[in-house]
Amino acid sequence: MSLFRPPIVRSATAALDRSLFSKTFPIAAARVLSPKNIPRIQVQLNKSHEVLNLERRKPVEIDPDPALASKGGKCLLLNPDVKPYDSNTWSKVLREASENDEIKVIPYDLVLDYNYWQYRTISYFKDAVLTEVVDIMTSLLPEDAQAEIPTGFTMVGHVAHLNLRDEYLPYKKIIAEVIVDKNPTIRTVINKTNNVGTESEFRTFAYEVLFGLDDMNVEVGEGECVFKFDYSKVYWNSRLQTEHKRIVDMFTPGEVVCDVMAGIGPFALPAGKKEVFVLANDLNPESYKYLKEGIVRNKVSEIVQPFNEDGHTFIQHAADHLLNLTATSQNTITRPLRAPKRSRRHPPPTTPAPTTKTLTIPTTISHFVMNLPAIAISFLPSFNGLYNSHDSLFYPHTATKLPMIHVHCFSTKSDDNVRETAEICERVSEALGFEIRPGEQEMSVHEVRDVAPKKRMFCASFRLPAEVAFRERKAVGEKDGWGTWMKKQLGMESEE
């Protein structure tokens, strides 16, 4: 309700004075003379729309009269249209209840304070009425700073990660303090001071602490896995959780996935949980360290193998690695089986249940994941000759298909993404040296998320063309790496 707004406290931007947010609203209340009648009367007054309908505030309150309150007296808060001394504003139900001495309509001072108000404005429809809950920041910030009040932040464990615009930097401490007050799990608030990737090729970023300790050792749960890492040393984006799940859901147990830019394993570890074999690689030594720890912590050591290599060479190394495992008969692993739960109703089996199972690692890779959207497409030349002289392993000689490649990238934004899809296909084709049009080679371009006003993240998925996979293989070096890419992008925005 627009009536229930916090007080304007523009002068509080230098320091947060929570007491200034206390505000009294004079309304009416129905004193219920017999507490046992409260449920019935509340139902009746709900039907007449006279009960106060306020978010995060129950309409039943202790009677404001101390003498009655000591005897368990209660009252029902009424909406602002009901006036305590004007029965013309009462419904027939309310008047009859009053005439029957079941209730007494009295004035009531509703006090809302800092603990009630929220950080941000929320608008919603309830009973076909647009309701707006006004935020603390609207009351705090100057009128000329109301256009785009910071409402979004990324939570990574106990850390809230802000990306404040310049005009809000003078109020950054206040913003951080309110965020902590309104989010009990947050202990540290940081603000990014440069773009991801400009600090290092490992997608880390410089930051300042706005509130709390500079404690970046966090714990995050995702995809039935637990990740523990130093957020200042590795890349993690909680906003990609949906994308992580979307990709992992494409994998079938028993397949092999090559995660070329695995980070600390948001694709690799959940895939391992569903018994997908994963070759997980990252160039960042810190990511590699936390990836190894995560593999052990999440009990996928037998099925997820970590690597710390340059992605250009790793692509062909991974394919060769599997071929070598098969050639040397090292392509089987043994995994422990969980003991089945027994109930008292069913006696234990006479034959002991197996405690382990043996899995065979396929000879070829089914999926490549390349989640380094700023430059992942530049790694595609490494697929040239990936399976040179091994065409007999694939269709039509066998039922096995060449791998699907899922490469993340950035492009512009439009309503239908038609222009972007065509542009991404052109970039993929140029990198592969083979033309792929939309719809060919199972090519699809999926919109992942917006990262800037004119910038969107996509994922292009396509089947590796036989013309590329079976070419003569050439030596692979670091082609068009991060430093070269950054020089080419002068004047463009870096990755969020």
UniProtKB/TrEMBL annotation:
Gene Ontology MF terms: tRNA (guanine(37)-N1)-methyltransferase activity
Species assigned in the record: Lachnellula hyalina
Domain SAM-dependent methyltransferase TRM5/TYW2-type: 153-466
Protein name: tRNA (guanine(37)-N1)-methyltransferase
Positions of S-adenosyl-L-methionine binding: 244, 282-283, 310-311, 371
Compartment(s) where it occurs, according to its Swiss-Prot or TrEMBL record: Mitochondrion matrix; Nucleus; Cytoplasm
Keywords assigned by UniProt, alphabetized: Cytoplasm, Methyltransferase, Mitochondrion, Nucleus, S-adenosyl-L-methionine, Transferase, tRNA processing
Ranges of biased composition (kind: Basic residues): 338-347
Residue numbers spanned by region Disordered: 335-358
